[in-house]
Each structure stands twice: as structure tokens, then as C-alpha cells.
Amino acid sequence: MAENKLVIGSRGSKLALWQANHIAGRLRGQHSGLTVSIQVIKTRGDKILDVSLSKVGGKGLFTKELEDAILRRDVDLAVHSLKDLPTEVPAGLEAGVITRRSFGADALLCREHSGLDNLSAGAVVGTSSLRRTVQLADLRSDLKFRDLRGNVDTRIRKLEEGQYDAIVLAQAGLVRLGLEGKITELLNPARIVPAAGQGALALECRQGDERTLELISFLGHEQTRHQVMAERQFLGRLGGGCQVPIGAHAVSRDDGSLLLRGMVSDLSGGRIMRAQVVGAPGSEVGVELAERLLADGAQAIVDEIYGEN
């Protein structure tokens, strides 16, 4: 790429483009004379809208085509929602920068503004996430859950049309699109554990691309990196993808340590395991928590799920 140009690869959804344009704007403001453009790339996950993500299978549903474009040098970097990025990054690439995370929780949007505890028995909740479904069902076994796919606007429209009584979306996406006013209730991460990396953005580029890494380095946030790396350690040790209901959420404590919460469940939600651990930033705290749950019975859950796929 030319010295004064940078090309960002992005999915075409409104949220993905907001994220890409946000990073592009930050880059232009930091580097005078830098021309930043965005190239839209459709991923497999964008094309399959009539099947639950847990049934599609495979890793990198929302990232592979973007990564291929980086490796071909069609683009310099890709902006990902970190929760979509598999824990194993392809050879030749690196998630060089993790941005500051401010909004990492799940959010409940209710048609009649009632909140989770006040939803009527039999209310229909829309979500495409097994992780969300099993945890919500554990709290409210009287609710009904139905798959919900499409972009943020489509999902909200389906709620407002009455196809669902409530839906669950990531808080971060709603805030980025200026839709936080639609949120009925933020779901406490101690109660509904979010996806690993939720709320953070990952900037992925070619390994050894010092020019791009230098340009984007100012966007990195060390505390967030420590948090999400612990979450992704946990996810990676459990071999997690869309097929396994896994959640992980780390927070930085006043003494500098990390508190990491994790959950894993079988597909029916009949066996939900939760635990938490405190460790030092940059340590193997995520592996430690995963090993604890695996030893306590999560290994059988993971083996059972992957044996069916």
C-alpha cells in the first residue's frame, strides 16, 4: 500500500461500518495527511441468515473473508468485534491492537418495558446465542426462546412488530449506533456472563507489518487487552465457538488484579457450570479457570457437544 494510504476491511452491516469509520476517523485525526478508505467484504456469516449460528458450525464465520483479504494485501487491516474473532488467529496475521472497552454487558429490550424479572410467563425472547439462552432459561425457565438473526435494526424491528416480547443484544452495539434508549435492562455480567471479548474491537493486520502496527498502536488499551486476553484464554482452553454455550468476563480490580468469571453449559441448559478466579494481569488466569471447570465436569460437556458435531 502507498505510504500515505491505509485500507480497512469491514463487513457491510451498519454496526460494522460504524466501527470501521470510527477507527478510520481516529486514524485520520492522529496522522495528518493519511488517507484512510474502507472496503466492504461480505463474510459467510452475513450470507447465512436463516439458520442459528450454533447450527452453522465452523469458526471465523464473520472474519475469514476479511482475513483472506489482509493476507492477499487487498486491505491493510480489519476491524472486528473481538467476540467474533476466533481464539486461534491464522498464520501470518495478528490481532495487533485491542481498543478500550466501555460497554461489555448484554442488554434486554422489551416491547412493554418490563425487564427480565417482570416478563410474563410464556413470553417469547429472541436471541441467536446459546450462551444467552441457557443462562436466561436458568433464571426464567417459564420463558420461550426463539432464534433471532439479522442486523441490529432488523432485530429491533421484529421486536417492535410483536414477533417477540423481548430480545437480547450486546450493549456495545446499541450504544455505538445511538440506540441505548431502546435498552430496558442491562444484564449484570455476574448474572448473565457475556461472550469473551464482548464490547472490545480488535484491529487485525499482517504479522510483521510494522507500518500498519505503528499507525494503529495509539488505539490500544492495555487494561482492556489484559481483560479480554484472560477471557479468550478461558474460551480457547475450552475449545469454544458458537456451538458451545461459553461466557467469560474479566474486570480489573482496584488492587490491579483481574477478577475473571466464566460459565459453560450443555446445549439444553440442564448442566450450567460457573466459577470465578482472581489473578494477575498477563498471567494464565483464563487457563486456570478453564482447568478448574474442566476438572469439575465441564470436560464431559465439551466432549459431548463436539462429539455431536
Can you offer a commentary on this structure?
With 309 residues, the chain is α/β, with parallel strands linked by helices. The protein folds into 3 domains: 5-100 and 200-220, D-Maltodextrin-Binding Protein, domain 2, CATH 3.40.190; 106-187, Periplasmic binding protein-like II (D-Maltodextrin-Binding Protein, domain 2); 230-307, Double Stranded RNA Binding Domain. It is 34% helix and 23% strand. The strands form 3 sheets. It has a 5-stranded mixed beta sheet, sandwiched between helices. α9 packs parallel to α10 (285-307). The longest helix is centred in the C-terminal third of the chain and has 23 residues, at 285-307. The radius of gyration is 19 Å and the shape is globular. The protein starts with a strand and ends with a helix.
